[in-house]
Structure formats: C-alpha cells, structure tokens
Amino acid sequence: MTFAALIFLLIIHYCIGYGFLRLFRVQLNRVPQACLTMITGIALPSFIPFLLQLAYIAITFTSVLISLLALCLLINIPSLMKLKSFSYRSLKLQFSPSIRIYEWPFMIVFGIFLVASLWRGYYQPVFARDMLSGPEVIAEYTIKEHTMLNSFFNVNLETTNNHHKPPYITGLQIIYKYFGFPFGQIWVCFLSIAFCVFLYYLLRQKLHPIIACTIFLFFLAMPELYAYTYILLFDYSNMIFFFLAVYFLQYYFRTNDVNKLYFSAALFGLATFMRVETLVFTAMIVPALWLYALRHKLHMRKVALYSVLLVGVPALVYFLWVGIYLEYYIPAKFHLGPQINQYLLNLQPLIKRFKEMHSILIFGDFGLRLWGYFFYFFIFLTAADIIITRRIDKESRTWWYAVLVVYLGLPLLGFLLPLMDLMHTTKRGLFKLLPFMVLILANNSILQALSARITRWELSTPDAKTSSTP
Q1: Helices and strands: H and E segment counts in the chain
Q2: Which of 48, 138, 183, 194 maximizes the CB count within 10 A of its CB?
Q3: Phi (first) and psi of residue 443, to 5 degrees
C-alpha cells in the first residue's frame, strides 16, 4: 500500500511539474527537463495545506487528495486544451546520452551515495532540532486535529522561533504523512536526486565525462551538503530553487526569451517560500538585470517592469506568510522589530562575522570537515584559469555575480539579524554558493581544454575509429 501511494505521489508530482513548465514554455533536453519537472512538481504541492488553512478548510486526507488532483488538473489545462500538440514522448524519462564505460565506476559510487540517502530518508525519523520544535510537530498534530493552528501552540514557545518558519516543509510533511509515510521526509531524497542528475547533466554538457564525474564527486561527497540530502531542513531545497532561479535568469540573458524571466521570478518565489531571507538575495540579484538591460539598451519601462516582477513574486510570497498568516492566524505572534540589530553604526559585528565565515566555516580544520577539499579545489583551478586567460568567461559572469551576492549577503544578514547565527544559518546558507561554483568550474578554460584533448585522443584511437564506422 505504501509503495502504491509513493508511485501515486511521484506521478502527481511529475504531472504538476509538467504543467508548470508548460505554462512558462520551458523546454530543455530530456534529462534536465525530466529532473526540473520533478523538482518543481515536488515543491508546488507544499502550498496546499497552507492555502487550505488560510481558507479555514479542514486539512483532512480527503481535502488534501482533492486539492492535489485539482492542482494537477488546473495546471495542465493549457496542455489539455492543446491535445494535438501534447507529446507523450515528453513524459518519458529517457536518460540520454548513453553512459560510457568509463563513467560506470563513477555512476556506481554516485548510486551508492544516493541510494543510501534515499534509505535514510525513508527509514530514519526526523531528528533535526529545528524540525522537532516547529514544522514536524505542527505537521504531526495537523494529522490528528486537521488544522495547522493546533495544540502545538498551547506550549510555551518563548525559547524558539521555529514555528515562525515558512510552511514549505510542514505542507509536504502533512501530505506524505497522510499517504502512509510516518516520517514523511522521503520527498527530500527525491528532490535531491533530481537536482543531482540535473547538475551533473549541466557539467557533462561542458566537460568530458571523466572530468565532469570528478568535479561532481567533489560536490556530492561534501559531508555537510550530503547530509542534507536526507536530513529534513529548508536549506538544501532553498539552495536548489535559488540556483535554478538564477540559472533561468541567465537563460533569459542568453536567449532573450522573456518566458524564462517569468519562470525565474516564479522560482525566486518558491525559494522565498522555503527561506524568507531569499527576498533580500533576490533584490541583490536584480542589478544583474540592469547591467543586461544597459548592454542591450532595453526600454526603461520594460526594465522597471521586469525588476518589479523579479522582486514582486517573492515579496507576495513573503506577504502571504509574514503579513497575513503570522500576523492574523498564528497564535504566537511574530515581531520583526526586536530581531533587528539596534546598533547598525557599530560595524564590528559585521567585520567579525565576515572573518569568522572564512576562518571557521570555509577554511581550517572545521571547514575541511564541512566541505572536504572542494573550496581549495575550486580556488586553485579558478586562480589558474584567471592567471592564464586573464579574463572571466562570459557565461560565468552571472555565476560569479550570484556567488558575490551570497558571499556578501550572508554576513550582512547576520549583522542585521543576529538570530541568523554563524554555526547554523550562515553555515547552511553557504550551500547556495556551491552549485554556482560547480558551473564556474564547468566553464573553466583549463578543464575545457583538457576535455577537448581527451576527446581528440579518444577519436584518434583505433577502437574509436572502428566503433564509429557503420
């Protein structure tokens, strides 16, 4: 029964994601398209329990099931109205190009990592502290009392603020618990697997498979990051959607396809639904749009509209949660004022946070335990590339800008909001750097030249010549 429920949920996720991508006319190659479909299809249903609560509708299995089916149907109406153009081939999970023989050892290692993550997500209970004093408990009591405003709020909550965090995890936990998964969190594993395949595919497009596999192994094997492929928290999901939002913004810069800009704004909104401070990072990303508009001489009215759109969608999500739900629904009121640093002219805490982010979190013994040698690997190859070529790859400029936004934004937010501490919020916030660093390596001229040499060597071998003849 649980297996049947899981298959049903995966189908629902895929259909919702399929309709969502069709709305924005997003069409990639089959592998990244399938992964992106699953990623967005997992995130969107998280709104369902929240919206049911806003409407004061009892959150029961029946209401959740009907809402899932209704969302699946409504979001696919444009596709259903164009049945002649509907292609069942787009629903097939065909993972091409084929895996070469020298990729298989890497694939086996990656499979061991991801299967172990999937098993832990299914078998282990939720144990993160932030979840046990917030979203997980709210979800558990929602199953019993059919409302998110349940008896959890009868206890003394003065020592925690985890009940003020967005309902993204709470919503998905409610759905999965209703469908027979007592610990819920297995959806985190499917989300992380889909993203890992998506990121690896991007690497493989740019680099020879052996080099792409090596870089991806550095990424996947980072101890801190890997742990959150099965530990239930907001940060891994937020990393995924912030990365995808910037990726499709860059896609717009490259193709001038405005649908990708709209899709980017929607992804920024989803990322804000996971961590509300993403609204600040989104606002810091907007100047990249202004630079693009300046180079391409876009009309000021269009630039203003696009800027408002990029910030407006995340701001709407923020308003729904903070301005409406936390203000008028939740018994334990949320007050932002007392959380803001009252001594903004004293910059010493900002300087201290910036230093500690390097000395404690990125470098040193503790940094090695968190990230392995990924940062050292990245810095060495990037420095060598810049020294040799004396330029930054055009495509990588957007990734560098995103890295700069996160790199400067994290200590700044820690300065403005002291509750965003170093060892938890800032540490996990560094996740957002990592996919961009991977794509910067994918555009590294040294690695691309090495990839070209390996490819030429392969094509010049007798075996390759023989296998290429008809």
Answers
A1: 24, 0
A2: 138
A3: -100, 10
Rounded CA separation 347/318 (Å): 28
Query: Taking a C-beta distance cutoff of 8 angstroms, is the pair 104, 47 a contact?
Result: no
Compute the distance between CA of residue 156 and CA of residue 332 in angstroms, rounded to an integer.
9
- Taking each helix axis from N to C terminus, what angle separates 364-371 and 374-389, rounded to the nearest 10 degrees? 100
Closest CA to 164 of 134, 131, 126: 134
Q: The whole model's pTM is what?
A: 0.94
Q: C-alpha distances in angstroms, 350 versus 338, 353, 358?
A: 18, 5, 13
Alpha-carbon distance of 29 to 392, in angstroms, equals: 27
Alpha-carbon span 31 to 329, nearest angstrom: 42
Q: How far is CA 316 from CA 270, 285, 339, in A?
A: 11, 17, 22
Q: Hey, what are 276's tokens? A: 């509300």
**Dihedral angle, C-alpha 444, 447, 450, 456, nearest 10 °:** -70
Sorted by sequence, the CB contacts under 8 Å of residue 37 that are 6+ apart come out as 14, 17, 18, 20, 21
**391 phi and psi, to 5 degrees?**
-160, 165
Distance in angstroms (rounded) separating the CA atoms of residues 406 and 379: 17
